[in-house]
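Subject: complex prediction, re-run

Hi both,

The earlier run crashed halfway through, so I resubmitted it with identical inputs.
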Amino acid sequence: MTAPAPDTTRKYDLAFAKWVYKNVNGGDKLSMCMQCGMCSGSCPIGVQMDYGPRKLFMMIRAGMKEEVLSSNTLWNCTSCYRCVVRCPRSVPVTYILQDLAAKASELGYAPKKENKRFADSFWWSARLFGRTDERLVTAKYYFSFGLSEGIKRGLDNLKIAMGMIKAGRMHIGMPHTVKGRKGLQAALKKAAEIEARQSGV
Amino acid sequence: MAGVTSQTILVVGGGIAGVTAALEAAETGYDVVLLEKEPTLGGRVSRFNRYFPKLCHPTCGLEINYQRIKKNPRLQVMTMAEVAGISGERGNYTVTVKTTPRYVNAKCTACGDCAKATDMEVANSFNYGLDKVKAAHLPHEHAYPMRYVVAPEAVASGEGEKIKAACKYGAVDLDEKEATFDLNVGAIIWATGWRPYDPQKLTSYAYDLSPDIVTNVEMERLAAHDGPTHGKIVRPSNGEPAKKVALIQCAGSRDLNHLPYCSRICCLGSLKHAAYVREQYADATVDIYYIDIRAHDKLEAFYNRLRRDPQVNFVKSKPAHIIVGEDGRPVLCGERTIDREIYKEPYDLVVLATGMEPSVVGGFAPTVGAVVDDYGFVLPEIGDGEGIFSAGVAGGPFDVSMSAQSATAAALKAIQAVRADGA
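This time it finished cleanly. Structure:
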């Protein structure tokens, strides 16, 4: 893990921090952070992150926009909420990471990381059917790595899939959909329009 | 405002603030009644091993105060008494006082025959329950008044008769009952102090899971010569010397889930604990886990003294949680915020610097003449009619010297409140 350490001699650029305070869900609480380390110490997968939440928040204040938005910290959060429960300053750490991930994705920072591919596959199914079909989500995710990699991953898991079908744990036939798919898609389209109008860095 | 009908000043709480305020007012020539809930004066201060920053013993200052009390006929001390109600206004308060039985009257000579007569033991509240005492006991060796007390458990179980029979002075009175009576006073000094924040509420610090995780007030008793270990700092689990010690700052304080305010004494308290450990063991190491060290003004010299000790390490981190390792030692887990390393460090002894919670939280608080803030601190009502003043930690998180200063200030305000000419 080679984290770029903030250069202590450079001038702090508060523009990015101010943008986060204003536009990111929970960002207005970020100024409460006192850098105690409770969140990073509590994080069950903190060691797999480029930076723990505490350091990420310091980097936001230091104006390290590129490093923050392209870090895997945003994508590796499992939303266990341990940091939120323990934070002595009531900073909604999980919300901030979740919304930073969404903003990073919008702004084209999201790297081709597995978490991002999976999130995209999940959302594709939800948008199309109003429900997630685990077969299609899995297939879409596997083939996002390319055709041969998709086939390979599918074959690797074939036995598990057959077992699940046999046990009645996986559905066969057409995907389930919600009633009024057209209405859902119209609603999502409208929501996307509103969001596009409101966002902007 | 009606005229002043009583010039008596009531002081509630006989810790260092209450004792100081009562003496200052009484020595100025006013009648003072001092109420204390426990069987002895001295409160939290009498439970300290030593004061910071000079590391002198609290018994010294308390002894001087007790001498002043004995010499002053205007000051009346009532122990095992607490306030159950206040009504009226400045110059004319009616205070309902509730007393709990001590079962020992003023004939007691503190000879100790009653304690020898019984084998029954009860938890020792003076040592925060770390050890036990006989059911008939002196609250501690420096008690004021120097008088024994019989535990209610002994009276209820019939063991009281044995205790009574052993007293050759007729001092044991098992027929004492709870009583309430009213006092008419002109002003009230509220000095009910604090209790340590309950460490069981800090669930991730596993206080219940290991006897080697103690609070800062318990550490004071471990270091005190009249404490459960006679002053040896050892692991409560097995009695072995505690040579690798972690001190956790802000255990409860500065935490919106617990005490939102800084308790102000814990940093210096923990520096003092580091000094205790280093005095006892030349090969001991102490790690102080902190968010930031708040050693103000003259207290910074004490901080710098500890910083020069290479075996005292300052680790900038609020530990996330404590687990109990396979060898039974507590293991601290968290992130060191300077180098961003995740640590898992085992210790012989972990001390939680739990903060100060005002005693009025969950207890009686004055409902007239004063306001209680969101944290439970008692502040005087602003205006012409105020007659209730807080002293010591009842009014805010203070150390001992600040408590004494606030007590002197409260005494002066109370005197002004009861003077008929209003001057």
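Chain B has nine helices and 24 strands.

- K.
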